[in-house]
Amino acid sequence: MQYKKEIINSLNSKTKKIQFENDSVAEVFSGYPEKLREKLLYLRQLILDTASGNEVVGNLEETLKWGEPSYLTTQTKSGSTVRIHTVKENPEQYAMYFNCKTNLVDGFRKKYSTKFTFGGNRSIIFHLKDKIPVKELEDCISQALTYHKKKS
Question: In this predicted model, what pLDDT tens digit does every residue of 17-73 receive, in sequence order?
Fold first, then answer.
């Protein structure tokens, strides 16, 4: 993976360089308010780590869809797109978005109704103060990134 652009995330006096292959994605992350940027970068890393731990998924493509950071299984076509972005109606919320034409969020809701807040049939919503249930979210990400393999 060759990185073109990096942003500096310096929340809580910890300076960390985050590298991106896609300059446009880096610019979007740079534009987020600092507290939201930290949370969204955490979700980004969780997506990348979950993908790298699953050989079915292959390399992810990080791009923008509707101006939002999006993660596609372009190499293997194993899964459905996962997006992350703020919740426009509430500046203290952010979300992980899934294709609303799949049954992914319905399945997540059945399995994790007490762990997450859901936005219709398309997202898992987080508040800045939330402690993310990591194992459960990794499972949701993995299901999305292997969605087409499970259908066949």
Answer: 788 999 999 999 999 999 999 999 999 999 999 999 999 999 999 999 999 999 999
Spatial distance between the Cα atoms of 88 and 43, rounded to a whole number of angstroms: 18
Question: In angstroms, rounded to a whole number, what is the distance separating the alpha carbons of residues 122 and 102?
Answer: 9
Tell me the Cα Rg of the chain. Answer: 15
Are the beta carbons of 125 and 112 closer than 8 angstroms? no
**What is the pTM (predicted TM-score) of this model?**
0.90
The β-bridge relationship of strands 61-65 and 16-20 is unpaired
Alpha helices in the chain (DSSP H): 23-31, 34-52, 104-112, 134-145, 147-151
* C-alpha distances out from residue 80 to 13, 67, 145, 148, Å: 36, 18, 6, 7
Contact of 87 with 96, CB cutoff 8 Å: no
- 5-151 CATH choice from 3.90.1150.200, 3.40.220.10, 3.40.50.1370, 1.20.1290.10: 3.90.1150.200
